Amino acid sequence: MHTRALVLFSGGQDSTTCLALALSKYQFVETVAFDYGQRHVIELEARLRVLEQIRLQFPQWAGRLGEDHLLDLAVLGQVSETSLTRDMVFKMEESGLPNTFVPGRNLLFLTLAAALAYRRDLHVIVTGVCETDFSGYPDCRDDTMKAMQLALSLGMDKRFLIETPLMWIDKAQTWQLAHALGGAALVELIVEHTHTCYQGDRTHRHAWGYGCGECPACELRARGHANFVANDAVNSDLPTVDVK
Fold first, then answer.
1. Measured between alpha carbons, how far is residue 88 from residues 38, 39, 101 in Å?
2. What residues form the membrane-spanning segments (predicted)?
3. What CA–CA distance (Å, rounded) separates 95 from 37?
4. C-alpha to C-alpha distance for 22 and 64, rounded to whole angstroms
5. 22-41 mean pLDDT
6. Residues marked as binding?
């Protein structure tokens, strides 16, 4: 029954890799993003370029790629005092979490994605959360995803599958996975068109893509890319890619 998927697609490296995986596995794929007042709103523009380039460069996927959705979630910005939704300096809080943590964000994203999937008759919800390269966000944990899958399936009386293909791999392996799925063309697309920088910097071009080079997102992406290159991606042990 799992042939139609909805990808939570922000236009960043992780969600683009997840989209490529979904397009390789499922017969039909739609995408959804959320405008929640994020400071790096430029990602909402980048995602459209990524979708356009995927259609142009990967004709084997273009026929499977369906409608894109953008949902207004401004209320999340209203209730969140974080460096992603306010003009604040990045820092660690007393809780041990960075102030980039937006409480409830992924829970709301998944709930709305499931409601959309219900209406669109989509069976799988794909998200790029992970426990390997993350800052301890509780709504990125595998236990949270399993609990949400159960709650959404019960609450909507529809058997959803929440797929988290990046959950147990690091950022270098995420680059490797992209290479396994789409070769050098997909890696270059991610470098040139995706956006991850918390500062919304599209003026500084690095080997790993655009960004300020200093925020946590840029540092993580840069370190992963350096390891990916150093390890010779073509011959490295890649995460298992289950494609149809």
1. 12, 10, 13
2. none
3. 24
4. 10
5. 88
6. 9-19, 197, 212, 215, 218
Write out the binding residues for ATP: 9-19
Q: Which residue ranges make up the annotated binding site for Zn(2+)?
A: 197, 212, 215, 218
Q: How many CA atoms, within 13 angstroms, populate the side-chain half-sphere of residue 103?
A: 7
Nearest Cα neighbor of 121 from 156, 85, 173 is: 156
pLDDT band with cut points at 50, 70 and 90 for residue 233 = very low
The residues spanned by each domain of the chain are: 4-171
pLDDT tens across 153-199, in order?
A: 999 999 999 999 999 999 999 999 999 999 999 999 999 999 988 88
What the block records as the tokens of 40 is 């790096």
In this prediction the pTM is: 0.86
- Find out if CATH 3.40.50.800 is the number for domain 4-171: no
- Which one-letter DSSP state was computed for residue 150? H
Q: Which residue has tokens 């959950």?
A: 167
Phi, psi of 71 (to 5 degrees): -105, 135
Of the candidates 153, 165, 155, the one whose C-alpha atom is nearest the C-alpha of residue 1 is 153
